[in-house]
Amino acid sequence: MFDLLALITILLLFFVLRWQASQGKSFTVRVLTATFLGIGAGLVFAGHTAYVGAIGTIYAHLLKAIVVPVLFFSIISTVSSLGNLKTLTTIGAKTIGVLSLHNVLASVTTIVVALTLGVGRNAHIDLPSNVEVKEVPTLTQAVINFFPQNIIEDAANNRVIPIIVFSLFVGIAILTYQNKAEIKAFTDFIDAGHQVIFKVAALITRFTPYAVLALLTDKVGGLNLASLGSLLLALATLYLVTLFHSSVTTGAIIGLLGRLNPWIYLKRFFSVWMIAFSTQSSVGSVPANVSAQKEMGVPEHIASFTSSIGTTFGMPGCAAAWPVLLAIFTINALGLDFGLLDYLYMVVVALLVSAGTVGVPGTATITATAMFTAIGLPVEMIIVLTPISAIADMARTATNVTASGSTGLLVARFEKVLNLDQYYDNDGQEGKAYANS
């Protein structure tokens, strides 16, 4: 009786979220509304949310269903867009190398900070009885598992790493194919598939506020104040890590690898950081990103290339800090036993799944789902942490864009085409002397 009443109440509350959407309320506002409504409904209907919980489970299943096609089409599209193998092995390789460094350093920083602060340790969230936690493989077995032996079976079982490796090979094959006219039908299919799956992901993401409301109603009855506080700790940790990466880590990379004054980059790129922070879109920030790089002396072809690749690869905010933070929250909340090799494996997975990240608001959830699927954690836990995702997305996106901007700067520096006079402008001669030393 009360279970049915809870379901009816949630369905009525769905109309509140729908009304907000019709009034033009932002995605963030609707998710926050769903958060408060879910907490309230969970307290009222504690112990009677079996029907409501099914709604959130369906959403989690939909997310898992699109992981493979999103990775497949996004990676092939990204690699094949490099134009030719020469571009891939020169500018492309350097771009991917710097973005990979950003991703790895962000993952390591997140692991250190999150474990030190004990994120999720007091959440006391029980794992749903119908969800099993897979064992994390040894490092040797993990390397072997990177390579597919049956791509259809891997796709059917949501084994994301072999899908990524296979997609990379397909992308390289397209690049090296001599007669592009012969494979035009296939490349058109990839481009069309990328657009379609992009639309599917966007459609599923639109239901996030409703899933948050249903999932929180189901989960909050078992949460205590310490658990709610742990969500805020996770959010604070995310902001700490991303701000550290955007300033200290990025500055160190520019200073040590590029032998440039990092303060100039951070100061002149701040407006782009703010655009990314407010729009929550890496793709939407590309024009401002390219413009800022050009003003700092980066040639346009490098600025455009690195900005574009940076929306789909590396992404230290969405593809490293966020999924790693969620994973550690889940590990601590469920009391799982992860060792050093497991965390190293997590860093590798974060780098690989970043290749399939699409630079639009909300796709960090897809990346996190791929991470959880790869390391054997329950996807349902991602939804539990969704209430803070909308606020976290501002910091994640700004970090992604800052990384791609610094990548363009460094690639131009490595290629010896960075205009140092334009970079330093009126900031003095000391930096130029250091750069030329």
TrEMBL record:
InterPro entries reported in the protein's UniProt record: Na-dicarboxylate_symporter, Na:dicarbo_symporter_sf
Keyword Membrane set for record: yes
GO cellular component terms attached to this protein's record: plasma membrane
Protein name: L-cystine uptake protein TcyP
Keyword match Membrane: yes
Pfam families in the record: SDF
Subcellular location, record wording: Membrane
Matching PANTHER family: L-CYSTINE TRANSPORTER TCYP, PROTON/GLUTAMATE-ASPARTATE SYMPORTER
UniProt entry keywords in alphabetical sequence: Amino-acid transport, Membrane, Transmembrane, Transmembrane helix, Transport
Bilayer disposition of the protein: Multi-pass membrane protein
Gene3D superfamilies: Sodium:dicarboxylate symporter
Main localisation: membrane
Entry GO MF terms: L-cystine transmembrane transporter activity; symporter activity
Family: Belongs to the dicarboxylate/amino acid:cation symporter (DAACS) (TC 2.A.23) family.
Species, as recorded: Aerococcus mictus
TM regions (residue ranges): 34-55, 62-82, 160-177, 197-216, 228-257, 269-288, 308-331, 343-360, 366-386
